[in-house]
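Exercise 7.
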Amino acid sequence: MPDDRPGSVAKVVLDSPLPRLDHLFDYRVPAALADQVVPGVRVKVPLRVAGRVADGWVVALADTTEAPGELSPIEQVVSAAPVLAPEVWRLARAVADRGAGVASDVLRIAVPKRQARVEQRWLAADRRPSGAIDADSGPLADALLAGQRIAALPTPHVVEAGGEWVGGWAADVARVAAAVAAAGRSTIVAVPDRRDLDQLETALAAGPAADLVLRIDATPPPAARYRAHLAALEPGPHVLIGNRSAVYAPAAELGAIVVWEEADPFHQEPLAPYAATRDVALLRQGQSGAGLLLLSSTRSTTVQRLVDLAWCTPWEIVRGRPNVVLTPDDGRGARIPSAAYRAVQQALTAGPVLVQVSKPGDAALKALRAGEAPVPIDAGRTAHELGRAFPGVPVLIADGEHVHDTVPGGPRLVVSTRGAEPRAPGGYRAVLLLDGARMLLRESLWVAEDCLRWWASAAMLAAPDAPVHLVGVSGDVATALATWRSPDFAARQLADRRELRFPPVVRLASATGPVHAVEDLVEAWAGAGADLLTRSREERGERAVVRFPTGAGGRVASVAKQALIRHGSARRPKPPAPPPPVLRVRFDPHEPL
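Solution. The predicted structure, written as tokens, is:
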């Protein structure tokens, strides 16, 4: 039993992936460690299993316990740094519960690995609040500071920031973050990838919040990331930027959460419990009362559903749109129609031209350089055709193997796969969007809105009033791009999904593992309000996908967690018998079928 000292009981979450250990354990705080054991510190504690010692975090202190018998004492305080902030623990618990996951799995994403030397210097340093800054506020920042949830489209062209050119979206976010910081509050910004993060960092460096920026992502060395995490624990305001893990950054005085391109697949967490950035941001907004800005080049059906439910307010940051031209194939069988060739020819007199294609072109690039005639249909073949059509004009390929964040001004042809497009000073003088019909053939629940987002992202790299030619695509999705009315397109897509009972109108969950375990879970899910969508045999078991109303999420997740605990506690065959397949559950799989 605990002694009479206040706070003599520590509530500890173990660093264990086992579902059966996913709850708080009570430990006695020894008198010798009383000054060191505070919420947030890492500790080592004994387990009543073969004398093992486990790592964990102290979540809270209490005066009493309801645990029977005598409490085991904490063995060691690993560090005096309270690296697990209370708001991060609350978020981790909610994320795990929503996805039938384990809280410590979320904490491994949220809290970087300890770097002892960095931590020692931080503990010895004199920490002071960040200095006040002056920044113009505005209706959007005011709405976020009031706790509103907003869905917005950004400035649709590149802008100059500190002598460099960045996407208009980055400048929009930098203005919001500065205004929130001027009010004494912190902002968290999560973006899909390194290229977006670099743009955002450039935009922030050119504004009044430059000294408040902390980069929370995996790109810098581990010591740098841990240093940023510790700095985020200090009094703010801060501007915390990073990829999907940034949404877990500690920020006690949180004023705004911003997610750029929430529908981008890079926002899908590949580690259990697989929570997408958007869903984590919604949970954190609800817990913190901070404002939430879902900023995207196009409106996704998921966000449109939130708008329809009055959960998000639609917002127009700036009027205007790219000059999109729908260009049909001219029947000659050429990769680039005559009208598009003429647009390229005219634009090259003023500066660079961007050509977006669906496939990378490594092999074709080699053929182009060798002067060979037959080349594959990809970025390299397109570059080859353009190079022959416009002799003397430099041709540059941008894809996963040939990375270019920016290109210089002047006449040149830039052939890029979607998502790899460089930025040009002042924007491209023309943009060609090729392979659109091929992109739409991809098998995916989200193919139409994905294509619209890819095309819109490229279109926003054009100079104001420069033509953007969408080649060989017609119908609703093409009209949505030409009119720049993706919210209307998302609303129509959502209506179709409502009739079909497809996400995001409903939620999905998948179970993979031993046949008997999957079948038992599907039966239990049915009792919680889920119905079977698909079932298929796997190499060593079975996979099933169920769908359920969004309001049944708590029940469905609870049933799954109980099944995982039962399966994890079952006896395993002794060697040399092979271990049975593990039961795995995933909620909201991005590509479930």
